[in-house]
Write a structure and sequence with these properties.
By secondary structure, the chain is mainly alpha-helical. The protein contains three helices and two strands. The protein has one domain. Strand 1 and strand 2 form a beta hairpin. It starts with a helix and ends with a helix.
């Protein structure tokens, strides 16, 4: 698959959400060793960086203007129901 074309089309169509990377590699995640897992994730991010971000003086990096505080939500616990009320 041409990942560069895929990412470009998403951006052209206004996609502004996050890109998700799944690390299922035998040489990182499946080793069960945290150092190898983190190293595999870093390698994936660095490999995809030119597809996702603009080139700056710092290299291919996530734009600092895109960092935002997490949103606060007013959430309430769902009400409890029994299986009888669902059937």
């Amino acid at each position: 698959m041409d990942w560069r074309a895929f990412c470009s089309i998403l951006k052209e169509r206004g996609f502004s959400g996050p890109f998700e990377i799944e690390n299922e590699a035998k040489l990182s995640k499946q080793t069960g060793k945290m150092g190898a897992i983190v190293q595999g994730c870093k390698a994936a991010v660095q490999n995809l960086a030119p597809l996702l971000w603009e080139l700056t003086e710092e290299g291919w990096t996530y734009p600092s203007a895109e960092y935002h505080a997490l949103w606060e939500f007013n959430r309430k616990a769902p009400s409890e129901v029994s299986i009888d009320t669902l059937l």
